Structure formats: structure tokens, C-alpha cells
């Protein structure tokens, strides 16, 4: 189950995003990758571009501040995520392995993820949570789920899809 909300204030400028220091990391769950390949997915890459806590100076100040103001979480981790045209992440649930290690979280049921949509929906941008497709969002809409919710993300459109991922415990 997930919930939909909105942030109270748009504090970012989408025009600044192309100039940020994005990097691409491989999807970090080998068993999920194996499953996707076994059912016919043939992508070489299953992820998007990222700016996360591993490079804190590259993360804009507004991102961390927004997470702290808008979400009632402890152990907050913030990432900017950009899915370029053609990027997909098939159905999966997050393992939070790095997050759990960094914050010493033994019970994954304490972990929540909130996704803040940083731009209005564009044709081809896709999000599905617990089998329910979400499209036509506006900048500032949020989607929040507990640790093991199945979800899908894809950009089969022609423009980048920008989100802020906020992970924390309750």
C-alpha cells in the first residue's frame, strides 16, 4: 500500500538539472537482474542517473532541506534520480542494503521511501506501485511506500524524468 501527497513548496528549478553532476551506477540486486533476464528483459542497463549521499557536495542544498521539512523520517537519505529516455527498472522491491548498513537498520519494515516528482508528467514517463499505474503527476506530487512495495519505473518518452528519493525510518 502507498499514499499520495504533495510537498508544500517548490524550491527547485528544473532548468538547473541538466548541469548537475549525474552518474550512472549499476542496479545493485543481482537476484532481481537475473529474474528480469530470465523472463525476457534484454537491457544492458537497469537504472537511471543518480546524485546521492556518496557525493554529498554534488547534492543541491534544497534537496536535503526539502526532505527534512516535508517528511517525518529519521535516518534520512536523499538522492536525485534522473531516468533518461529508454531507462527502465522492471518490477522490483528495494532491498535498501546500503541504507541498512549505513544506518544500522536490522528491521526493513521500519524503512519508508518517498518519491517527489520534480517535474510535471510527460508522455512516456511511468510509475507503478503495487500494480497501480501512476501518470499525469505534477511537480511536487509525492508517492510514499513501505520497504517491500513492488514498483516499476520507466522512461519510454523523449524527455528526462526527474525525481527526488527520500528514504527514512519511522
Question: What can you see in these coordinates?
Answer:
The structure is a single chain. The model has no long low-confidence stretch (mean pLDDT 95). The chain has three helices and eleven strands; from the N terminus they run ββαβαββαββββββ. Strands 1-9-6-11-4-3-2 form a seven-stranded antiparallel β-sheet, with helices on one face. A four-stranded antiparallel β-sheet has the order 5-10-7-8, with no helix packed on it. It has one domain (2-169): Jelly Rolls (Sandwich). The chain is globular, with a radius of gyration of 15 Å. The chain has 170 residues and is of the alpha+beta class.
Q: Helix fraction?
A: 10-25%
Unreliable stretches, pLDDT < 50, 5 or more residues? none
Give the CATH class: Mainly Beta
> Ends: how far apart?
16 Å
Structural class: alpha+beta
Q: Sheet with the most strands?
A: 7 strands, antiparallel
Strand content: 35-45%
Instruction: Give the overall average pLDDT.
Output: 95
CATH topology: Jelly Rolls
- CATH architecture classification: Sandwich
- The total of helices stands at 3
CATH homologous superfamily placement: Jelly Rolls
Shape: globular
Spatial ordering of strands, largest sheet:
1-9-6-11-4-3-2
**Cα-atom radius of gyration:** 15 Å
Total separate domains? 1
Give the H and E element order.
Answer: EEHEHEEHEEEEEE
How many strands?
A: 11
Amino acid at each position: 500500500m502507498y499514499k499520495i501527497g504533495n510537498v508544500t513548496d517548490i524550491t527547485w528549478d528544473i532548468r538547473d538539472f541538466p548541469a548537475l553532476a549525474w552518474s550512472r551506477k549499476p542496479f545493485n540486486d543481482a537476484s532481481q537482474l537475473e529474474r528480469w533476464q530470465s523472463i525476457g528483459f534484454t537491457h544492458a542497463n537497469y537504472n537511471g542517473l543518480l546524485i546521492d549521499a556518496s557525493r554529498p557536495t554534488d547534492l543541491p542544498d534544497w534537496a536535503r532541506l526539502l526532505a527534512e521539512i516535508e517528511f517525518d523520517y529519521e535516518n534520512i537519505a536523499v538522492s536525485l534520480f534522473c531516468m533518461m529516455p529508454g531507462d527502465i527498472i522492471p518490477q522490483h522491491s528495494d532491498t535498501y542494503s546500503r541504507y541498512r548498513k549505513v544506518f544500522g537498520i536490522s528491521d526493513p519494515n521500519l524503512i519508508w521511501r518517498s518519491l517527489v516528482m520534480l517535474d510535471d508528467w510527460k508522455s512516456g514517463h511511468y510509475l507503478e506501485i503495487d500494480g497501480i499505474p501512476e501518470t499525469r503527476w505534477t511537480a511536487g506530487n509525492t508517492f510514499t511506500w513501505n520497504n517491500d512495495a513492488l514498483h516499476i519505473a520507466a522512461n519510454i518518452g523523449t524527455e528526462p524524468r526527474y525525481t527526488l528519493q527520500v528514504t527514512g525510518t519511522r
